[in-house]
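During the no-cost extension, the postdoctoral fellow (Dr. R.K.) reprocessed legacy sequence entries with the updated structure-token encoder. One reprocessed record is reproduced below for audit purposes.
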Amino acid sequence: MRVVVSGARPTGRQHLGNYHGALKNWVRLQGDYRCFFFVADWHALTTDYARHESIADNTVEMVLDWLAVGLDVDRSVIFQQSAVPEHAELALLLGMLTPVPWLERNPTYKEQREQLTDRDLSTYGFLGYPVLQAADVLMYKGEVVPVGIDQAPHIELTREIARRFNGLYGPVFPEPATLLTDTPKMVGTDGRKMSKSYGNAVYLTDAPADIHGKLARMVTDPRRVRRHDPGDPNDCPAYQSFHRHYCTPEELRHQEEGCRTAAIGCLECKEIMIKHVQAELAPIRARRATLRPDDARAVLAAGNARARAVASGTMAEVRAAMGLA
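Re-encoded structure tokens follow.
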């Protein structure tokens, strides 16, 4: 089976943005690929090295949500990046052959340097984290990497690093392909990208009343100040992100006509979408209620051992290829 590798920073409870942007796709891939999914706790330190206190708790909460949505330990290796030190060794060795301009041209590097002005990102770790990311993928000889559109340049850089390594030392690594997610971005209740830090997220474990309350208050077309004001669904964040994703074609036609003619109000329109969100999250919430922190720790312990066994073999090949055996 072809190998899939993907990971996520330990941000704690998972929200609908995480679910549609990654987790739902991961669950689907389990049936057709050999999957490695990891908690990227070292990556969390590249931007939050001074805010490390919540990493352990967030790791457990995130893995519990992964299990609740359907990640299966019999079909996937679920592990913690920092528990497999071979990742650090491979990142060091790949760093020896990665030109600095490759890292400086990374669009995410430039974007986050501009946006995250509340912290010092002029660090070696932040500049070089795409090399660590490449090591994460190449360690398991990943052939497919499911990512959002914003991470596509990172996978292209991983391909370039693999190509350069193979050219220098012989064919060891495949060049991984990018698999874009079906839903590249889910907006939050305020119309911005859904994010825990923005306080605009709908979490997978939110109670039904909380889900309803958050989505009922979600921003819509600013032209619809009053009930009888007509609007345009194309200018409605709720419609563009949630309605288009959850509602049936018949429901969408009803909502579009009702919005443009003011035949229905925004809340009435949202109620159609909210019932679908509630239906999707109900079984996830039920499975999550049966899980305990020790379940996540046990899954990670077993996955860490399986990942290390694969990583050990890869590093033996790498050392031999580089004359370090």
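The two ends are 29 Å apart (CA to CA). The first strand starts at residue 3 and ends at 8. The remaining legacy entries will be reprocessed before the final report is submitted.
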